[in-house]
Structures are given as C-alpha cells and as structure tokens.
Amino acid sequence: MKLFTPASIGPVTLRNRTIRSAAFEGMGKDNNPTPMLRDYHWSVAEGGVGMTTLAYAGICRSALSFKTQLWLRPEIVDSLREITDGIHARGAKASIQIGHCGNMTHRSTAGGTPVGAVTGFNLYSPTFHRGLRKDELKVMARNFGDAVRTARDAGFDCVEVHAGHGYLISQFLSPYTNRRHDEYGGSLDNRMRFMRECMEEVMKAAGSDMGVLVKTNMRDGFKGGLDIEDCLTVAKALEQTGAHALVLSGGFVSKAPMYVMRGEMPVYAMTHYMEQWWLKYGVRLCGKMMIPTVPFRELYFLEDAREFRNALKMPLVYVGGVVSRDNADTVLDKEGFDFIQMGRALLNEPDFVNRMRTEGHRCGCDHVNYCIARMYSREMACHKHLDNLPEPILREIENIRRRDKERE
Ligand SMILES: Cc1cc2nc3c(=O)[nH]c(=O)nc-3n(C[C@H](O)[C@H](O)[C@H](O)COP(=O)(O)O)c2cc1C
Ligand code: SF4
C-alpha cells in the first residue's frame, strides 16, 4: 500500500502521499500572515500530512480578492519563514498556492479596476473589470516567476499554480470568459498562451530545487465552459511545460462554485456574516439560484480523473471527496494516482492523516459546507468546533443534512 510511503514532486520528497489542499484559511490580516494561520498549518503538519499548502496567495496587488488573503511579497518573507520552519520541524513539507483572481474582486481590495481576460461586468463579485493589455500580460507572467522566488526565500519547498476554478489563468482558458480577438483569444491553443507564458516564468524561477504543482480543471462544470476534451489538451500542454505534478479539480467560481466542492451552499450562514446590507439581502434572495447544489459523493472526481491518469505520464494528485483510508487506498493503489489532497477532512480533523493509520477510520466531515459559507467573511472554521452558533445557522445545517440524506 502506497499511502505511507515517501514520494517525490520534482526535487522534493514527501514522507507520505498526503497533501493538505489549498483551502482558503481567511486568516491573513491586511494580506499578511498571522499566528492563527501559522498554528493551523503547524497542527496539520503535526497531524502527519506529507505536505501542507497555504491557500491562495496573490502574486500582485490586483490578484487579491480578500484582505484576509496573503499577498506574496518580500515584506512577509520573515513571517512566512517562521511558518515553514515550524512545518519542517514537524516533518512535513510546505507549499503555497500562487494565483491571480482575475475579475473576481473589488476596486478597494485590488487597488484599482479589477482586471480579466476581457472588459465586462462580473455579476458574482459584482464588479466592472477591464481586459488586460498584451504588455500587461508579460508583466503578469513575470509576477508569477517573482512569486516563486519569494516563496523560495520564505522556505517553501513547492508552489502550486492556480490554473483552475475560473481564476485568471482559467479565465483565459475558458471560451466563456475569453472573447479576445488577439493571439491570446480564439482557438484553444491561443487561449493557452497566457498559461504557457506564466509557466515558463514559474519553471525558470523554480530552477532545480523547488517543486511545481498546477491545479487545473478537468471540466469547468457549466455549459459554455471547457469540457473534458479541452481540459485533457490543457493538461498535456502543462505536462510539456515541465511542471512536476497536476492537481485535478474542476468548476468555475463565478458560474459553478459547488462543482468544485460539491454539496449545498448554506446561503443563510453565508449572508449572516456579510457586512454590506445590500449584498446580504441580495444573496439571501437569489443565493439558491446563483449557487446551485451539486450533490456530494465520496471521490466525486474519480471518473474524470481516471481519463487524465490514462492520458498522462506525469505525477497526478487526486482531490475531491477523500474521506477515509479506503478512499485513499483506492485512489493510490487501485487507480494509480501518486498523491491525494484533502481539504475538508483536514479542516475538520487536522490530525486525520495520523488517524488514517487506523484502518477504516472515516473523517468527521459531514459536507454541509458551513466552512465554505463562512470563508467569504470570517476565518476558516468547522461548525463542529464552534459553540454558540446562532439558532438559524444551526437550523440551516440540520435542514441541509436532511436534504443530503434524501438525495442519497
Ligand atoms: C473552505 C474552503 C476553501 C477553499 N479554498 C480554495 C482555494 O483557495 N484554492 C483552491 O484551489 N481550492 C480551494 N478550495 C477547494 C479545495 O482545495 C478542494 O479542492 C476541495 O475542497 C475538494 O477537496 P475535499 O473534498 O477534500 O474538501 C477550498 C475548499 C474549502 C472547503
Ligand atoms: S464545516 Fe462542515 S463541510 Fe466544513 S469541514 Fe466542517 S463538517 Fe466539513
């Protein structure tokens, strides 16, 4: 059985096959790390994981969509170094997800008009955004390279490039968001150009001592987005860039958010924490329609991921609905993947990896997704660890649980 055997991502060897996925902690303050962020990742490292990933860090100011996100820049290297030193001291490796949110932000957070593949209006944020000029795309690609160098200075072993979920690189890949008429738009080959340019800078900066993972979509998850055939082409192009591993995901935050994580979005909980009244009541009114439920099941991406396993030679990381030792063994031993990533299982139980050594243990996550609803306004937390949640939130959790049971 592979689970507790070491394996490598490029030049970096992990003690076992488990990785804490990039799941936004919302624990930054003014885009800087905090002791809370440090303590969470130390607890995951202590809990036996092979590598833990600090979630989404912006590669430049316009890449930020929340004040609680990290902005990866030289000023925070020392505090990040404290986090990575502590992770290493606990036997795990450290990775950081680097990305640009494209149009999914606001002027005040991004420091100017949000940017994207094209000019338009993003209903989800909601915000106007402008299309990036060609000269700006070159700078953006170099920002990805600079982020890798900063990550190295901060002691990270790996970076994970966010090329999925409708973030900037994915906004270029998808025909839904990329209607450009220059060499960055049109054919899929053209739409992949920006990704290839970013990856060229990333691989150059990573050199021979850092591992590079790329989180990529297997489908955008809505009509008009990328389907599996397109995504296989993208994955093959990523393999050609020399990236060391792909994390296979799917979904598009502005169109199909629950396709990424599955289950129902607790809309009441989400709006409960919102501060702007118009957004609070707008989302409470239309949230169910804007964020459709995509039923959860264990290993929900496995069928699609299998197609990628058959088509690619490079190391592949499976993510999506790993909740038990059985799931992990299926993915690694039966299906031939190299690593597993887990988000909610390690949010619910930071020491889940150590507990998986006990055959058959299932994590305590119920996939009611309170943590997802909360991340837009508060630091990451699992409802199972919180006392005194307001009555309407508890009622919503119960109702979702009941509906999930009916769907099974
Ligand atoms: C609270 C929360 C925040 C997330 N934030 C991110 C993120 O910043 N970047 C990302 O690529 N995926 C993000 N995800 C998706 C997870 O990394 C992972 O792909 C998904 O949850 C499926 O894995 P799981 O079933 O093990 O939770 C997030 C998931 C959760 C639950
Ligand atoms: S809040 Fe719910 S979905 Fe999130 S980790 Fe906890 S139990 Fe799982």
Structural class: alpha/beta
- Main-sheet strand order equals 3-4-6-10-11-12-13-14
The N- and C-terminal alpha carbons lie at a distance of 30 Å
Arithmetic mean of pLDDT: 96
CATH-derived topology: TIM Barrel
Task: Give a quick summary of the entry.
Strand 1 and strand 2 form a beta hairpin. Helix content is 40%, strand content 15%. It has helices at residues 35-46, 77-89, 107-110, 134-153, 168-173, 188-191, 193-206, 228-240, 257-261, 267-272, 277-290, 302-311, 325-334, 344-348, 352-356, 370-374, 391-407; strands at 7-9, 12-14, 18-20, 51-58, 70-71, 93-99, 115-116, 120-122, 127-131, 158-162, 211-217, 245-249, 316-319, 339-342.
Walk me through what this model shows.
The chain is built from 17 helices and 14 strands. The chain is an alpha/beta fold. The protein has one domain: TIM Barrel (Alpha-Beta Barrel), CATH 3.20.20. Strands 3-4-6-10-11-12-13-14 form an eight-stranded parallel barrel, surrounded by seven helices. A three-stranded mixed beta sheet has the order 7-9-8. The chain has a two-stranded antiparallel ribbon with strand order 1-2. The model has no long low-confidence stretch (mean pLDDT 96). It binds flavin mononucleotide and iron/sulfur cluster. Iron/sulfur cluster binds next to helix 14 and helix 16.
